[in-house]
Amino acid sequence: MSNEIRMRDLVWQSTIRLLFSFRGLLALLFSIFMLVMVAYIYDKLPPAFFELITIFTSDPSLQFQWLFFDNFMSKLITLFVAPMLIFDAISGDRASERFGIMLARPITRTQYLLMKLFSASLVFGIVFLPIVALGYPVFMSIVHTLTLEGYFGTAVLVYLLAFFTMSVGILVSTLTKKAVVSFIAMFGVMAVFMMPNATKYTSDALNSLSMATPHYYATYFSSHAFDAATFAVYAVVVVLFSIPFIVATIWRFGKEDL
Amino acid sequence: MNGTLWVDDIKSLLVSRRTAYSIAIMAVLATIVAVVVAFSPEGLKEALRAAAPASSGVFEYLWIEDVLDKLLIITFVSFGAFAICDLEDDRMMELVVSRPHSRFEFISRRVIASMTVLIIVFVGGSAIVSVIGSAIVGGMDAGLFLLHQILVLPMCLFVFSLTLFLSVPLRTTAPTVVTSFAIALALSFAYSLLIMTGDPTPSPLNPLALGYRILLDLPIDAATSIALAFSGIFLIAGAVWFTRRDL
To answer: Which string of DSSP letters, residue by residue, matches A107-127?
Structure first.
């Protein structure tokens, strides 16, 4: 059996294990919770609220996109759902002394890291994307201005944002020894990444600063009309943000003395 | 209760990375929020001031509504995980409870130690936050800000107690932290979403809305009592469950 097939099998096994774990269930419940809450309140929002959110998105047809993806989903995913799936990927194995057993398998350390990263991002995709897809007909009945490409384009970019979060998370997990420290440290790092985008509406300076974070590109279509070329470019940009963290993780983990 | 062990627990927790990270996160987030307020246009500041008439200013509004209720709950969760999860993770629990003291005495000591450090870190961190806020934003009533932070303490204790309670069945850090954080975050988002619908009064039954009630100058007696009652129930139930569970 070639190494490549073994790697694929390992990713799949790890994905299934995580998907049917307590965390997989929690990620699913949280995605459903946000969907139901937003669907429940959207009809009840007073006109004054829509006047207020013109600060964030001047196009009325994009107000739902802003509320759902920018104001709630991107924050929730960055701060909780994605970190939850990855924070103890390395530090947990290290603490439970499974490290040696895992690395005794015929896989390289890089493959081990990538297995952890890809299985966590696969689990997130399996949980998040179908829930968001199920939400589309529900939201369409409430928000008539919602467009298919804008909704799913933003959903894909938010998925890539989760991948970025996990890239940061695996580096943090490699650098820390305790799971709780990994979670706090990752949370702090992601809060710093998230803040400029969350506050970009308050000034031009913060808007410029937010462009240095992937959150800006991932939530771009919650305040701008969708276009395919920009979507493709921004999808690549969000993935590119992940690369330095993945490279740093591989470099750091390769030097680790077991 | 053995006072030396209690002091040792406090010392080890005070000099831990958990404490350092918690204070560092508070300081970094305070700096970011202060910069945001400093750069915000006057119109937005006036709207936020009007939305939170009892606050010490826009900085406090953003701090409580966006940072404390959503982001800083992770620090309360991490302190709640200290009593049981740390020992379970290190596989030291059996060894520790085999010492010549009752399990109730042991859990009481760990809970009091971690609660003491949580209060020290939260109040100390809040003092640092108020200094950062005053220095960058200016014109902020630091005393009022600190008073409000102390009034929010029952909310912190609720999250702490919930985590301790969950750590009895879940045992290790990873499931305990994610479950407790999920529940606290869900409560926080629930009240944030519901107040958007036009009714600005969150339910006093939601302890995560205590800070928001303070900002709006709503009565906090019932909400504080409920948060403290929930905390007491979780602490006692967790301690009793721990003394009876099979290791």
So the answer is: S-HHHHHHHHHHHHHHHHHHH
State both tokens at B49: 């001031």
For residue A184, give every residue at least 6 positions away whose Cβ sits within 8 Å of its Cβ, in sequence order, or none: B18, B21, B22, B25, B74, B75, B78
Instruction: Judge whether residue A201 has pLDDT over 60.
Output: yes
| Partners of residue B28 in chain A, C-beta under 8 Å | 188, 191-192
Global ipTM? 0.82
Cβ within 8 Å of A, B 112-171: none
CA dist list (Å): A54 to A57, A61, B94, B175: 5, 11, 58, 40
Contact B148, B214 (CB under 8 A): yes
Helix axes A109-142, A228-255, angle to 10 degrees: 150
B194 contacts in chain A (CB < 8 Å):
41
A206 to chain B, closest Cα gap in Å: 7
Say if the Cβ atoms of A185 and B44 lie within 8 Å: no
Q: Which of B17, B40, B186 sits opposite A181 (nearest CB)?
A: B17
Domain range list for chain A: 2-255
Contact A196, A212 (CB under 8 A): yes
- The Cα B22–Cα B73 span in angstroms is 10
Chain B residues in contact with A89 by the CB 8 A cut-off are: none
pLDDT at A58: 76
Q: pTM here?
A: 0.87
Terminal C-alpha separation, chain B: 22
Higher-pLDDT residue of A25, A44: A25
State chain B's mean pLDDT as an integer. Answer: 89
Q: With bands split at pLDDT 50, 70 and 90, how would you rate the model's confidence at A4?
A: low
Query: Cβ distance B10 to B117 under 8 Å?
Result: yes
CA neighbor of B86 nearest in space, from B111, B103, B104, B105 = B111
